[in-house]
Every structure is written in structure tokens, then in C-alpha cells.
């Protein structure tokens, strides 16, 4: 279904670099351009910022150049069935700005590592990674609203949320979380809610209740012990928040979901 012909990562060219292929290729070309560039699409010159991705369809003209500085990109020459684009629709022959460029760059590097390896399952791995690449590109294009914070702190925001869910027992506060990202408390609350559609402190509570449900199902610990392990100093407060989110008390939840006696 998916066949890479050749590819490269972090290929650099001088400030006079330019490409003009009037008939394109007989295969598709993916470019992830890590420097400002100029694309000529149907006669129109389009200036693009660093971290722009474009997928040229087969036999489509390629014309692009550096914008006066060093040009750097990742690139993949590939063949695939037309149904692939039906499953993962992305605008072809159109420069697409990628907000989380490190994620996409890392994916392409993983694909290259497989492509140049002799791993037993390299073809399957490459296909799965390419599917992720297409899905995440589509996702970023659809959700990107050109808010300046997306490209600057979005990755750190993801790391923060991962840390919250990995360590729900910590004494998370808005001030502490904001300090980790080196932004103001108000800014943190705005971008957290805009990104995850939940307030940061509501997410902390959700992470603690999620952990509590796991402990109730998988252990024989007393409710008070579980309350402490989830970061609560007050057992009554824990029980109130648990019932608010689950409609059940911790004991009722355990009785219905425990796996320790099954």
C-alpha cells in the first residue's frame, strides 16, 4: 500500500537553492521545510515560514526556492494507492503550516531510521508511522488557529499534562504549573482550557479520581489510604469529589468494579 523510494532528513542547501520540475515526478513528494521558503503554486509565489509541510501529487509541477537564507528540509519520495489519500485527506500541492514541528520532525526521523534499517518488520512499521504522520498533519492543520502560543509552549503543555496524570498525588497548583512553563497564571489557564477543553485544576481533579478508580479496582487499600495516595489531605473532600465525577461513592464504585476478588 505504501512504498518509499528514497528519503532524507535535515538536508541543507545554500541561500541560492531553487528547484523547478515542470512535470513533477511520477511519484509523490513530501517536503517538510524547516526554513523560510518560497513556493510557486499555479503561477503564484507563496512565502512560507519555517516548519511548512507540502505533499506534491504525482506529475504535479514542483517549483520552490530558499527565501535568501540557508534552505533545510526533510523529504520523502513515495508511492501509494489512491485510497490512502481518501482515508487520510490532506490538501495536496498546498503549503501547510505545522504548529508542533518537533513532533512531525521526530516522526520523519523514525521513518528514516526504519527505511535505512534491515529490520524484519520495517515495511509494516513504516506504513504505520506514515499513517500517524498523515493523521497528525491533518489534525494540526485543522486545529491550528495561528495563535502564537501554539508553536512556543504547546509541547511543554503536553508534557505538563502527562506529568499531572503520571503523578496526580503531587500538590498541583496554578502557580506551580505556570512556573514550570515560565508563563503567567492567567495565560496558563487560558491556553490549557483552549487546548484540552478543561480547566487545569479540573484536570488535576480528574487525574486524581482516575487514579483512585484504578486503586479501588485493583487493591484492597482502605478509602482513607487511597485518598492520601491521590493527593488528598481530607478524606471527606476526596469522597465528595469522587461522587461528583462518578455519581458513586468510592465504596460503591469498588463493589461494582473490583477485580481483586474475580
Automatic annotation (TrEMBL):
Classify the source by domain of life.
Bacteria
Q: Does the record bear Transcription regulation in its keywords?
A: yes
Keyword terms of this UniProt record: DNA-binding, Transcription, Transcription regulation
**Ranges for domain HTH araC/xylS-type:** 158-256
Q: Which InterPro entries match?
A: Homeodomain-like_sf, HTH-like, HTH_AraC, Tscrpt_reg_AraC-type_HTH
List the coiled-coil residues: none
What's the short name of a Pfam family annotated to this entry?
Answer: HTH_18
What molecular functions are annotated in GO for this chain? Answer: DNA-binding transcription factor activity; sequence-specific DNA binding
Work out whether the entry's keyword set contains Transcription regulation.
Answer: yes
The name of this protein is AraC family transcriptional regulator
